[in-house]
Structure to design on (837 residues):
């Protein structure tokens, strides 16, 4: 693994002890390096064409739609199956077995034989088997509230209330987006050679983006079917304000823990971008730009609606905290070290969430400096043992790099409160209370901190008797430690791969894990449904497919879609209604 | 049925965990099977043939060092599978080679020896040349030689039978590994030796196989796949109303 360093700012990086705290990771916002932003930027730069090749839907909106995606490098199709879903089958859990729409991205053309195979298997999702030409497999359910009222409004010749999209920013919500070889589809190893999709999760993001386009076109179709004479299409600004939802739970956690080298690349990339931005001298123009971004984010947060009381309070707090940041910026004149002064001030006066918002917006300010990092967020993951390392050296490595893990106590009930496991129900990851629930003997080894601590205890005793021994000799005596020793040796030289928290601790907040990963995806509008289950929105505000190829629209114009605000538009009678009155 | 690399690796790892392998061994064993399969060396068939034995073995036992000095080590795997008994022996040989320039590691009483090749690829990618030698059957007497050049992902493999079998040869279930740090040891048939060349597989054909498997998927018998899935379920916790709460999702899908 190489730590590519195109931005020579390593001296200015924030310490891992600050960055890798779980509550800080769980306070991050999507940034311009997030995967949804990165994909859209690539699509704009390369003028990807996304068009409807088949749109065979009946009057209920059921049927098949196929979108053709043409890039400078290749041709792909997104095949969408839309079927009736009984009310009793409607669930956003991974354990569901039927959905409103199921869809997949295919490399190349979709021949009749492949289409039939997909029609037989894509709707089955986990129970089906797919071709290795399929890159992504996913499914989604309607937001019934929005869907019904949106169709009704358009059919009546009116635009729906934009506030409805602020409350729930989508018509469809995905519940899983599968890539990397699941159910027979293409391995990521194959995509790594494909410059269209060699960035992390880029193929999955494309699938979600195309679903968004489908949701708009299906909506317009249903309104037209319902009232051919009066129906209007969804207004472009509302189309742009429409995202795709995602509901997700503890399934995010195993990925974060099981891919520390990838997490290192993601966080390292973000931290390098931040370090680089903070070093830039702030002119008055820069200060004003930052203020404008800050005000937009402030308004976005004010508009964000959630039923969850804790998140509502968090939103209130950050709105207040961001207002204080705006006030500070307004009274502080531009000077070369303004950003450093701002972040230092925020460290002492602002909430962690507001601090991370500032960081996100600083990164947003300098596309010309940070966008090259889009191509540095992936890595080839390999963990090899260093068997000839002396045990003394391994002990020192732990003490120097993993001291955060050594506070764990076997005897502390608090330190051992939770356990993680996979359920027999579709292998859904779950959390149980160790002292109360069954299944502890099958727990999954996600808590890296306690494992490091246990290894350290065994190692310390071994070193006392064998001070000159090699690590492999320790492992011959303690073979169960092989996995964690390999991880310690691999990750010790890297600052940002390990989340510095005991995932068994009673105070551990699973939601922080979810938000960590979702922020890298580019998620917004966090709407928790419990302490370990959240709904979010992707691509809200993103340019539409038709805009990607519009030569009149420049990259910087199209790429500026973070923290989208509710369109300033009241529900109004549109063309259809006007035609009626005329 | 066709499966992907990642799918085979993931399910194999879970199946080995279900059998009782420690996490690190389960992961290594899965990598070994998948590496072999991806390089056209029948990893799944090897696993299939030995699965019944593996299920009978006590996986909590570790291989035992019965002799070692600075250059040489002899490990007894106690008639258990190489899948979770060879990796540390190989790492011990690697460590000695790093210190001395050359090491010899002998693993005795070990089955699934062919699968060791999957782990040796890891040694090679760490800039070490490694050659493995073992005899696979007695009638006819067959020898297998596998050599990786340092830094190369795929080996040269020779499997040949001997016409002229020494009188005092007895079957053995050991394997010998020679690792060298600064030169490459590659198989080279002696010109005056009569060998029945049963197999000579070079790295190019193996790399081609890998490309094909990546594009088309890996063929697995459905019965074997179902068997692996069944073993993998051993690490799953039965669901209950309480455990469903542990997922944290609500029961309503409305929004």
């Amino acid at each position: 693994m190489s730590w590519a360093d195109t931005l020579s700012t390593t001296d200015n990086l924030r310490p891992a002890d600050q960055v890798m705290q779980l509550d800080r990771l769980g306070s991050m916002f999507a940034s311009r390096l997030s995967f949804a932003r990165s994909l859209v930027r690539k699509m704009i730069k390369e003028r990807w064409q996304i068009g409807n090749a088949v749109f065979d839907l009946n009057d209920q909106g059921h049927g098949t739609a196929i979108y053709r995606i043409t890039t400078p490098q290749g041709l792909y199709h997104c095949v969408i199956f839309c079927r009736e879903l009984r009310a009793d089958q409607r669930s956003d859990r991974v354990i569901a077995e039927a959905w409103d729409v199921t869809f997949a991205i295919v490399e190349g053309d979709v021949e009749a034989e492949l289409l039939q195979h997909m029609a037989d298997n894509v709707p089955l999702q986990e129970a089906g088997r797919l071709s290795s030409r399929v890159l992504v497999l996913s499914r989604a359910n309607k937001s019934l509230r929005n869907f019904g009222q949106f169709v009704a409004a358009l059919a009546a010749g009116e635009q729906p209330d934009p506030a409805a999209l602020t409350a729930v920013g989508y018509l469809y919500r995905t519940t899983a987006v599968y890539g990397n070889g699941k159910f027979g589809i293409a391995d990521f190893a194959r995509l790594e050679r494909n410059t269209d999709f060699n960035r992390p999760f880029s193929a999955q993001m494309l699938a979600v983006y195309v679903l968004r386009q489908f949701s708009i076109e299906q909506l317009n179709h249903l309104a037209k079917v319902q009232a051919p004479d009066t129906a209007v299409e969804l207004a472009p600004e509302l189309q742009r304000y429409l995202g795709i939802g995602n509901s997700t739970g503890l399934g995010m956690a195993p990925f974060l823990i099981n891919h520390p080298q990838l997490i290192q690349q993601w966080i390292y990339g973000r931290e390098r971008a931040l370090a680089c931005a903070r070093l830039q001298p702030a002119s008055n123009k820069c200060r004003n730009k930052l203020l404008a971004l800050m005000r937009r984010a402030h308004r976005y947060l004010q508009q964000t609606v959630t039923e969850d009381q804790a998140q509502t309070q968090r939103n209130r707090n950050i709105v207040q905290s961001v207002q204080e940041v705006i006030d500070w910026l307004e009274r502080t004149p531009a000077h070369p070290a303004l950003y450093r002064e701002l972040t230092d001030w925020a460290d002492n006066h602002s909430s962690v969430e507001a601090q991370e918002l500032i960081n996100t917006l600083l990164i947003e300010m300098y596309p010309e400096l940070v966008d090259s990092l889009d191509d540095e967020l992936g890595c080839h993951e390999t963990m090899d043992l260093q068997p000839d390392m002396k045990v003394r050296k391994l002990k020192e490595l732990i003490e120097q790099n993993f001291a955060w893990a050594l506070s764990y106590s076997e005897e502390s009930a608090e330190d051992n409160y939770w356990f993680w496991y996979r359920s027999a129900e579709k292998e859904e990851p779950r959390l149980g209370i160790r002292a109360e629930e069954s299944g502890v003997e099958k727990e999954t080894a996600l808590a890296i901190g306690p494992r490091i601590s246990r290894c350290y205890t065994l190692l310390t005793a071994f070193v006392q008797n064998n001070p000159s021994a090699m690590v492999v000799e320790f492992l011959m005596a303690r073979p169960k430690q092989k996995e964690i020793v390999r991880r310690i040796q691999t990750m010790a030289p890297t600052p940002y791969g390990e989340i510095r928290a005991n995932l068994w601790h009673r105070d551990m907040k699973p939601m922080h894990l979810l938000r960590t990963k979702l922020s890298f995806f580019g998620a917004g509008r966090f709407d928790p449904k419990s302490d370990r289950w959240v709904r979010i929105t992707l691509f809200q505000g993103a340019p539409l497919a038709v805009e990607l190829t519009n030569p009149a629209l420049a990259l910087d114009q199209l790429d500026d879609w973070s923290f989208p605000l509710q369109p300033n538009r009241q529900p109004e009678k549109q063309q259809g209604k006007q035609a009626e009155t005329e | 049925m066709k499966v992907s690399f990642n799918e085979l690796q993931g399910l194999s790892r879970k199946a080995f965990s279900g059998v009782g392998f420690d996490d690190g061994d389960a992961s290594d064993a899965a990598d070994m099977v998948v590496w072999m399969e991806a390089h056209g060396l029948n990893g799944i068939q090897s696993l299939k043939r030995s699965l019944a034995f593996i299920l009978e073995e006590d996986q909590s036992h570790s291989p035992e060092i019965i002799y070692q000095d600075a250059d040489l080590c002899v490990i007894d795997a106690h008639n258990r599978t190489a899948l979770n008994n060879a990796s540390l022996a190989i790492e011990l040989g690697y460590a000695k080679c790093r210190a001395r320039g050359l090491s010899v590691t002998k693993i005795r009483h070990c089955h699934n020896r062919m699968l060791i090749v999957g782990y040796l690829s890891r040694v090679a990618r760490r800039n070490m040349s490694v050659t493995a030698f073992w005899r696979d059957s007695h009638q006819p007497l067959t020898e297998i030689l596998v050599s990786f050049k340092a830094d190369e992902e795929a080996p040269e493999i020779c499997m040949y039978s001997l016409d002229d079998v020494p009188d005092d040869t007895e079957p053995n279930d050991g394997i010998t590994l020679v690792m060298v740090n600064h030169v490459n040891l590659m198989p080279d048939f002696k010109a005056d030796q009569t060998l029945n060349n049963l197999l000579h597989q070079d790295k190019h054909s193996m790399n081609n196989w890998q490309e094909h498997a990546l594009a088309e998927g890996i063929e697995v018998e459905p019965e074997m796949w179902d068997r692996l899935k069944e073993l993998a379920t051993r690490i799953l916790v039965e669901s209950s109303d309480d455990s469903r709460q542990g997922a944290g999702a609500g029961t309503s899908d409305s929004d």
